[in-house]
Each structure stands twice: as structure tokens, then as C-alpha cells.
């Protein structure tokens, strides 16, 4: 079903954070996947749930153009075939209030639950908000994870991934990991331990010598991949690499994880619809 996830909107005077123009590529990727997800699964599952752990304000202003667009959460709510339920999480007070008002104003017909606070701390609330499911009342959830940094704990993903769930996870490896390497490598810093769910990651990092010392990003990507496989997820065969538009600098990866090949097939189908700069930055095969 035809769907354009680039949804420009007028200024509604509510709080609207400013983002860079490459965010539009991210929105396009998420929106196109959500569309193929709900279209392809509507007759196979009784219920489909959308979870956004870092939902933002609902709208975002592009710094370069001044134009305002719906962000991932509201794009998912704009689908021709909507999810059965939406669970939107946001910690920032100002963003949460704007999101709440926009959802109530523009999507009162949809089943949506908003959860305020840190998703790492509120993950049991998120799980509780999922629709009840069982034989004759099946549920297939999709979770988009878009953190600003490496502040996503692997235990959060582990809790959600106990049952059937697809993930699209933004990994801020260049934006955060590379820039803050000297801080993260210190023994007292627990950021990477929490992010990977591996307490002895420094030993693994040093053990592999020069191969990883030269590429901290590859080390984190490889370890994250292994952790997801332990949760019975298929290997992320391709990871989308987002670069800045002006200097072509690497920024972050978008990694898709599913427990079934069907999910990977869906994701593969939308790759050709995305801006060419969303190239396959990492190949795990």
C-alpha cells in the first residue's frame, strides 16, 4: 500500500525540537517498515503493537530548511493500516507534554498509551501495557528504539525480547562511543557495560588487540550482535549507516532484529526506497 512517511505539518506552536536533515532518512526507513509490517501482517495476527521507547515530541523541525515533520511515533500512527495499539515513551517533560497534546488532538481514534519517564526504568510498565494475547488472540509487536546516546541498557531489550518482538535499534556508535572512548574505557564508567549487558567487555576489547583497538565501533557492533543472537534473534545481516549530509561523516547505525526470516525479508524490501546514503555500512555475513 502506497504510503509517504515524510509528512510535513504546519507549526502548531507546541514544543518542537530541532533536528538535522538526515533525520528524514531515518523517518523514511521507520515509516516504510511500519507500513509493510502492518500491511503484510494484518490477516496473520489478531493484534499488532508499536512501541517507541524514545518517542520525542511528535513533531521535529529540520534545522537546514525550517520545515516541520511528524517524527517516528506520529508517522507510525499515520499508517493506512494502523497498529492495534501504540505505546509511546518519553522522559523529557517538555517533549512528553507536546507529544501528549498532539496524540490527543490528531489521533483520538487510536489506542495509544503514553508512558512518561526513563524507558530503562519503566520497562515493566511497557510490557504491562502490551495487549493481552494467547491462543486465538495473537500479538506481534514492533519496537523502535531511537536513543540520543548509548543510554539504552541491554537489559531493557532483553526484557522486551523474551517473547516475539521485532526491533529497529539506533546505535549511536559514532556520535557517542567514538567521541567518548577515553571516558568509557575507565574502570569506573558503566555505560558500555549497561549498553552491551557485558560486565567484562574491557577484557574482551583488549584481548582482541589491534583489530579492535583501531575500531571501537566495530567491537561494539559485533558484541551487540552476539548478545542479540543469544536472545534467539536472527543475525542482522545488514546495518544501515547514516552519514551527515554536509561532511559525509558517519553518525549512527540502524540495526534491525527479528526472530524470523519473514521480518528480515520485509526489511530487505524497503532498502531500495531509502536515500542512497543509507548504504550498508556494516555487513555481518
Sum this structure up briefly.
It is built from twelve helices and twelve strands. With 285 residues, the chain is α/β, with parallel strands linked by helices. The protein has an eight-stranded mixed sheet with strand order 7-6-3-8-9-11-10-12, sandwiched between helices. It has a four-stranded mixed sheet with strand order 1-5-4-2.
Please give a structural write-up.
It is a single chain. The chain is an alpha/beta fold. The protein has one domain: Rossmann fold. Helices cover 37% and strands 21% of the residues. The protein contains twelve helices and twelve strands. β8, α5 and β9 form a beta-alpha-beta unit. The chain is globular, with a radius of gyration of 18 Å. The two termini are 31 Å apart. The C terminus is likely disordered.
